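Quiz preparation item.
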């Protein structure tokens, strides 16, 4: 017998519709700082712009976008209107000029130099608060700029990276060396720096001590990293958690660093599936909308080196294309840095692509695809403090290291990963109220696949949802739950009657 059809309430129908966007002209604001590495111009010459900024200007001109370059050395905020979300910047170009930006119609691109001082950080915050679309947000730029922060994130989320240790003083030098393997050569890095600046290959303990002493004398913070000898590294451009292009940067004969600014050469590079997986994972944990992910391949295994929130474009790349918004990346052809930037500007010109800026709103109930199982109704449980998500399962059995269970009458099996302890408010003392067997699963939501997520098998009776998404995964997904809404980022999946396997 088929259950009675349920018609969504009108208010629910309204909240689940896409909001039409006004097609107002887009303005691109570039927040930057004079680059000290650009050669000095001869008397009477016009100062040379950074290459990537020039590419952005050209791309904007072709699409009819106004492009405003804001130099943090000169710019002053002279007006804000929070109701209209407008921001007025004076002397942005050092030429006694003024421009008013409408936040909701502005794409703000932040370059690395802009976060070096409070003037730049304040400008970034002001644009962010005006509801401008940020490439990248202040927090994402600061995360990418700090090599220790990113190394800790890689470790936390299981992203392969060379062993890394922070050195605060000579007393912890020996302990730090042990953490990175205890063998020379090693890599010494300042916590911040781009274009290979602040990266030193150290061949001996004596050289290490003298180098760190010299750096500390200039108030530099440093870390050491395991040295993996490879002939090249790979820079991958990621936009909106999608791979746009990749290039292989080959070391020069005189420098172990592969940066183009250090004399390295580059050529287009085709990524393997394993490389693409860790690159996208590194991009997600950085929470940057546009990022350059650097990795190496050592003994046939990829290792992420760092993420760059302001990647340069001085090379030829292998372009990656998308047949549609949710499709996988496919390598297509060689592309120049200029054409790469043109593709980036084309992508951000579509306002529908702005939705995944920073934290994205989702409903308390969404549809998530679980590998092998398929699409299930998922509750985004902000009160769930468990270290694992939970999937409803029937007839859970354990045979050695293999776990078997049923879902909707079908039997599944996976290698046992571990256990998850559940603590509830009504549990007595500090003992867990329940312990669940866990397995690793791939979960897909909002167009992204999250690999090897720990999921506990829950034999409790089914409710409105079959999957509980915990806070840790929500942070990876970069979502904020609106308890008043459901199915904001996914299509409604009707509940299924477990006994009769029919639509309710």
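Solution:
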């Amino acid at each position: 017998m088929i259950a009675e059809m349920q018609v969504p309430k009108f208010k629910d129908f309204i909240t689940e519709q896409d909001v039409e966007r006004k097609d107002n002209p887009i303005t691109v604001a570039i927040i930057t700082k004079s680059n000290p590495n650009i050669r000095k111009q001869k008397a009477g010459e016009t100062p040379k712009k950074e290459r990537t900024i020039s590419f952005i200007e050209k791309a904007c001109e072709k699409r009819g976008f106004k492009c405003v370059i804001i130099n943090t050395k000169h710019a002053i905020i002279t007006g804000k209107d929070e109701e209209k979300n407008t921001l007025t910047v004076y002397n942005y170009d050092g030429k006694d000029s003024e421009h008013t930006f409408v936040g909701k119609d502005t794409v703000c691109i932040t370059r690395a130099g802009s976060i070096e001082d409070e003037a730049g950080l304040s400008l970034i915050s002001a644009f962010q608060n005006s509801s401008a679309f940020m490439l990248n947000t202040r927090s994402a730029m600061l995360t990418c700029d700090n090599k220790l922060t990113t190394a800790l994130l890689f470790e936390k989320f299981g992203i392969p990276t060379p062993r890394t240790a922070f050195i605060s003083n000579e007393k912890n030098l020996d302990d730090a060396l042990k953490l990175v393997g205890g063998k020379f050569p090693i890599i010494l890095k300042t916590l911040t720096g781009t274009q290979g600046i602040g990266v030193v290959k150290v061949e001996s303990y004596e050289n290490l001590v003298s180098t760190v002493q010299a750096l500390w004398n200039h108030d530099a913070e440093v870390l050491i990293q395991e040295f993996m000898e490879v002939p090249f590294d790979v820079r991958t451009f990621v936009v909106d958690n999608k791979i746009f292009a990749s290039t292989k940067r080959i070391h020069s004969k005189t420098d172990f660093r592969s940066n183009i600014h250090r004399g390295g050469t580059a050529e287009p590079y085709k990524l393997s599936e394993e490389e693409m997986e860790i690159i996208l994972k590194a991009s997600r944990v950085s929470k940057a909308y546009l990022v350059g992910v650097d990795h190496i391949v050592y003994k046939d295994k990829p290792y992420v080196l760092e993420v760059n929130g302001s990647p340069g474009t001085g090379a030829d790349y292998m372009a990656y294309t998308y047949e549609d918004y949710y499709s996988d990346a496919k390598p297509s052809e060689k592309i120049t840095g200029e054409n790469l930037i043109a593709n980036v500007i084309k992508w951000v010109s579509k306002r529908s692509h702005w939705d995944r800026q920073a934290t994205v709103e989702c409903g308390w109930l969404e549809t998530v695809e679980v590998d092998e199982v398929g699409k299930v109704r998922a509750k985004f449980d902000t009160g769930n403090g468990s270290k694992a998500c939970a999937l409803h399962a029937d007839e859970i059995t354990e045979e050695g290291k293999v776990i078997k269970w049923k879902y909707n009458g079908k039997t599944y099996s996976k290698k046992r990963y571990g256990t998850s302890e559940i603590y509830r408010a009504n549990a007595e003392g500090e003992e867990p109220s329940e312990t669940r067997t866990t397995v690793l699963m791939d979960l897909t939501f909002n167009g992204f696949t999250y690999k090897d997520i720990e999921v506990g098998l829950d034999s409790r009776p089914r409710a409105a949802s079959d999957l509980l998404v915990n806070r840790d995964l929500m942070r990876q997904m970069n979502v904020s739950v609106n308890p008043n809404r459901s199915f904001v980022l996914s299509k409604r999946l009707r509940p299924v009657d477990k006994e009769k396997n029919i639509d309710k």
